[in-house]
Amino acid sequence: METFGKIILGIVFVVFSAFLTAYVFQHYWAWFIVTTFELTPLRWIEAYGIMITVGLFTINSSGNNKKIEKFTDFVSMSISYFIVLLITLGIGYILHFYI
Prior knowledge:
3 helices, about 0% strand
């Protein structure tokens, strides 16, 4: 039963990561691309689609993928990623006032 809980929590982290990453990208697009190039803002699903498309062509398989041996490593990496995204969003929010 413990393994099932870890799988569910892992899926929740991956889904939340996708939503949060697309949310940050959507706002960066609105703050910087829309104002600079006079384009239309993106909806969340469009931002996510662009991220997937770019990701398909920029996959880095240089071998620097760290093997996750413990579930706690996965959780701490996920939380660190969320914090980095939120800091990035905050920095973009501040910078967009200067454009």
